[in-house]
DNA sequence: TTGAAAGCGCTAACAA
DNA sequence: TTGTTAGCGCTTTCAA
């Protein structure tokens, strides 16, 4: 009677409870214990009960690294955002995380927006974990990262943009259409001399060009474009308004590339005793949670981050489980929320 | 000459390039290739070069699940936050993610703040990944989660609070001290009739009690406490101010449990033509990035999320690599940032 | 319904 | 410095 059987371990083991321990205690083979946990209806009720009891009494938590290695199915989804701070991506990451969790998947998070080298390294680190899917904020331009992603064969959802050549799946909207519609909206309000405050960001630049095109196409003076730099902060919005005012003192309407910048512009206007929207109309982009509660309530472009997150999660899970995704490219659109600031 | 050697694979393989492929191509044993990648100075320059060439030409990305399983060292750190949206934890998660990444670790993110059942499930999901460390926002109360965490033997950093009984490491500050000091600060400004707007959150409650204690201890009337509910939004702040005004029309100073709530209170005051800080002083908590740029600039309590994130990352990495952590419990403190609103 | 055997891709341990 | 062997803890495959 080797009574120390259950504690005998190789030198390499970590000492944690393994499936083998559970199986031993339940008096079945490891594979049977595995089935009891993963496909319980393939196992008799008695065995199921014994295994469950053994799990409870040992406090067993399955090692997903081992499971993932054996099954090549990690139940891990990676998400890449440019940055988290002060960001418009939070709602999306929130719904992504929760939707994934509800289906038994975990979220690995990476921030790409520091340098190209950082992004490449991040992608390699992600691929090394063999996630079942990758969510990318934005569309991946040609380059090392895109090639590696494609070569990896991992399911990919790109987002926040449209492209005729997605790597795999795509959930986005048209920045050009937004620029055009916002211009049309502001022109419809009778504004003629317009300016644009934008962050140093490629998608904001595309909204800006479309805006400028639409305005000039209608015979109005070319809008002033001010680049507020990399930060989407209230501070940069305040500074940018100062710059707009010095270059175009009679500006009538300003389209900002984020709600934070718009909040800054409105704040600076107030500090200078300029009335919004009477003297200057201000529009934002993103519809942050507090946009409606500011004074004046912010007129802005709404993007449904929550919807993108949930949809992306569903797509990625479907792919991971070998189910077909009917509409792997979807334009979620946007809407202009007319409130008080413009 | 079996020229098809390099493509021969078992049926279970995923077809991805493995270390074996690299080793074969470089003409060395797999373990040698492994050493070339992980401990390059244990390998001759020629072998190193050959392996690196093989890696480049094959596009090999090491499988970290396999490596983690073999070495029981996952290079994965999990972080648990109550919620991401509208949150004060962003700066911390940002610095945590980046500091970890720079040392070759990845961040797995989970949101706990929905229910106890959700939190327990989240913890099991995390433990199942065998991360090298876990970062918890807050201190874990007694319960299933805490027990499981302790049993797992994984390095843990608790944060945003102090406790005499941390699970392992702790990086936090005293909410009681904040309540007391803010009360002292406001009394020092001559305020007598005070109110408190707080989110439905245990730590905010402790700041509130300490605040109330300090005020009454000094013989002033007991502050009014308004619970703004679970959301830390501008909207709730506006509503809460309305409530404060109806119950204590002559209120002189209000301490809000977050900058968002404070922003809401200031906004509502403005909508009612009440001047801040002349008629009512308002203080926030958290020092969000835009606090200094509001009108009036927000007087608030600053907590260094960035510092907590960086420190936590260093502690967790040190533990993961078997190095000692000299000061596993640290009080990072706080500071009152006097600006214009109070 | 249950189990034995053979891996998944990598690294620790030991040897040469 | 390099290699052999034997796992890490789980699941696939095949057989009973």
How would you sum up this structure, described in words?
Two copies of one chain form a homodimer. The first copy, chain A, has 342 residues and is an alpha/beta fold. Chain A folds into three domains: 4-62, Orthogonal Bundle (434 Repressor (Amino-terminal Domain)), CATH 1.10.260.40; 70-173 and 305-333, Response regulator (Rossmann fold, 3-Layer(aba) Sandwich); 175-302, Rossmann fold. Helix content of chain A is 43%, strand content 16%. Chain A contains twelve helices and twelve strands. In chain A, the strands form two sheets. The first copy, chain A, has a six-stranded parallel beta sheet with strand order 2-1-3-4-5-11, with helices on both faces. The first copy, chain A, has a six-stranded mixed beta sheet with strand order 7-6-8-9-10-12, sandwiched between helices. In chain A, helix 7 links the parallel strand 3 (133-137) and strand 4. In chain A, helix 1 packs across helix 3 (45-58). Chain A is elongated and about 85 Å long. The model of chain A is unreliable at 1-7 (pLDDT under 50). At the A-B interface, helix 4, helix 5, strand 2, helix 6 and helix 7 of A face helix 4, helix 5, strand 2, helix 6 and helix 7 of B. Strand 2 (106-111) of chain A pairs antiparallel with strand 2 of chain B. The structure holds a DNA duplex (16 and 16 nucleotides).
- What's the total count of β strands of chain A? 12
Work out the radius of gyration of chain A: 26 Å
Question: What helical percentage do the residues of chain A reach?
Answer: 40-55%
Which structural category fits the helices and strands of chain A?
A: alpha/beta
CATH level 1 class label of the largest domain in chain A: Alpha Beta
How far apart, in Å, are the first and last alpha carbons of chain A? 84 Å
Quaternary state reads: homodimer
Biggest sheet layout of chain A: 6 strands, parallel
Most extensive interface, residues per chain? A-B, 66 and 66 residues
CATH topology of the largest domain in chain A: Rossmann fold
Q: Which percent band covers the strand fraction of chain A?
A: 15-25%
Q: What is the correct CATH architecture of the largest domain in chain A?
A: 3-Layer(aba) Sandwich
Q: What string, H for helix and E for strand, traces the elements of chain A in order?
A: HHHHEHEHEHEEHEHEHEHEEHEE
CATH superfamily of the largest domain in chain A: Response regulator
Q: What is the mean pLDDT of chain A?
A: 93
């Amino acid at each position: 009677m080797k009574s120390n059987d259950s504690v005998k371990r190789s030198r390499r083991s970590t000492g944690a409870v393994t499936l083998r321990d559970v199986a031993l205690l339940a008096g079945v083979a490891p594979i049977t214990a595995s089935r009891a946990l993963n496909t319980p209806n393939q196992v008799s009720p008695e065995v199921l009960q014994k295994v469950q009891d053994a799990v409870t009494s040992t406090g067993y938590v399955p090692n997903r690294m081992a499971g993932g290695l054996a099954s090549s199915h990690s139940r891990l989804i990676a998400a890449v955002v440019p940055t988290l701070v002060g960001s418009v991506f939070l709602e999306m990451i929130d719904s992504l995380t929760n939707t994934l969790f509800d289906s038994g998947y975990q979220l690995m998070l990476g921030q790409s927006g520091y340098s190209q080298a950082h992004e490449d390294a991040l992608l390699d680190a992600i691929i090394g974990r063999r996630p079942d899917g990758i969510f990318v904020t934005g569309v991946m331009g040609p380059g090392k990262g895109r090639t590696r992603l494609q070569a990896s064969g991992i399911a990919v959802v790109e987002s926040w943009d449209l492209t005729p050549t997605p790597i795999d799946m795509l959930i986005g909207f048209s920045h050009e259409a937004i620029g055009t519609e916002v211009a049309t909206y502001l022109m419809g309000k009778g504004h003629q001399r317009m300016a644009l405050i934008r962050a140093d960001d490629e998608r904001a630049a595309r909204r800006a060009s479309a805006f400028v095109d639409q305005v000039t196409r209608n015979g109005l003076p070319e809008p002033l474009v001010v680049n507020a730099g990399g930060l989407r902060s209230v501070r940069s919005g305040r500074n940018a308004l100062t710059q707009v005012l010095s270059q175009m003192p009679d500006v009538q309407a300003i389209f900002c590339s984020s709600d934070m910048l718009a909040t800054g512009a409105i704040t600076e206007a107030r500090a200078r005793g300029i009335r919004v929207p009477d003297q200057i109309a201000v529009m934002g982009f993103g519809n942050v949670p507090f946009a409606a509660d500011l004074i004046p309530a912010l007129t802005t472009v709404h993007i449904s981050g929550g919807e993108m997150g949930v949809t992306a999660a569903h797509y990625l899970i479907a792919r991971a489980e070998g189910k077909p995704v009917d509409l792997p490219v979807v334009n979620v659109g946007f809407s202009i929320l007319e409130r008080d600031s413009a």
